[in-house]
């Protein structure tokens, strides 16, 4: 159980974020469900908070409200499916603004909050595509790779300050983001949420959800394709 922790989950109004928020509630935690539109949050037992990860002022306001946070879950993200050579530059930039700069801005604002509250954890929801970079998802994969590097660097900075930084890597999940993928290729996000919460509570720094993520990591030591 996790009665003594206070969690903030970004993008908690739908998809994996809503499942992670619900899973922490089920384990007894206090949970802020952060969303661009807090009125769209429907998970039971959470405290909705307005937070757009691309808007530093909204992140600052959220950190004032949720000033007792000890666990931050950076889940919010987008997928434009832009390729890098001919995709719209605004989509390529939007992926970086979300997965990289957005996640970094939230960490910069909340890491001092977690420290002031005696330490805790940050979980960044990454992807198998942090490690595998297909042309058709070039913008997304580059942004998730950047977020992976960010995760490692921030872990080194925050570890000595009492904050554990973890990454979750997963293939397809059954959410709106990949509604075009057949159901039999997707993992139930509730299952992923349970693994995420188990990982955070167990002090893990890397959570590999499925074979897609495990294979992508293993392939890093192979030849460049
Ligand atoms: N689905 C997959 O197959 C898959 C695989 C690997 C990794 N992931 C990652 O898992 C995470 C969750 O994705 P999902 O599958 O649950 O997708 P989703 O169902 O499309 O949900 C995305 C969530 O992120 C929020 N969001 C997007 N931009 C935001 C912003 N600027 N500020 C605040 N919230 C924002 C959305 O809020 P709105 O409702 O306001 O749009 C929504 O709550 C993402 O980081 C994604 O990259 C997904």
Automatic annotation (TrEMBL):
Keywords: Oxidoreductase. GO terms for molecular function: oxidoreductase activity. InterPro entries: NAD(P)-bd_dom_sf, Sc_DH/Rdtase_CS, SDR_fam. SUPFAM superfamilies: NAD(P)-binding Rossmann-fold domains. Pfam families: adh_short. The keyword Oxidoreductase applies. Belongs to the short-chain dehydrogenases/reductases (SDR) family. This is Short-chain dehydrogenase.
């Amino acid at each position: 159980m996790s009665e003594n922790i206070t969690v903030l989950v970004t993008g908690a109004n739908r998809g994996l974020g809503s499942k992670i928020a619900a899973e922490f509630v089920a384990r007894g935690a206090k949970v802020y469900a952060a969303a661009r539109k807090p009125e769209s949050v429907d998970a039971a037992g959470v405290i909705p908070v307005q937070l757009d990860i691309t808007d530093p002022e909204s992140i600052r306001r959220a950190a004032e409200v949720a000033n007792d946070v000890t666990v931050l879950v950076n889940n919010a993200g987008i997928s434009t499916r832009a390729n890098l050579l001919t995709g719209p530059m605004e989509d390529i930039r939007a992926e970086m603004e979300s997965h990289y700069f957005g996640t970094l801005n939230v960490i910069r604002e909340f890491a001092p909050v977690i420290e002031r509250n005696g330490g805790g954890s940050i979980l960044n929801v990454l992807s198998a595509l942090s490690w595998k970079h297909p042309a058709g998802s070039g913008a997304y994969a580059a942004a998730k790779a950047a977020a992976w590097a960010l995760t490692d660097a921030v872990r080194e900075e925050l570890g000595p300050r009492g904050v554990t930084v973890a990454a979750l890597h997963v293939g397809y999940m059954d959410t709106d983001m990949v509604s075009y993928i057949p159901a039999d290729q997707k993992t139930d996000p509730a299952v992923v949420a349970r693994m995420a919460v188990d990982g955070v509570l167990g002090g893990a720094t890397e959570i590999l959800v499925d074979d897609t993520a495990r294979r992508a990591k293993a392939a890093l030591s192979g030849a460049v394709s």
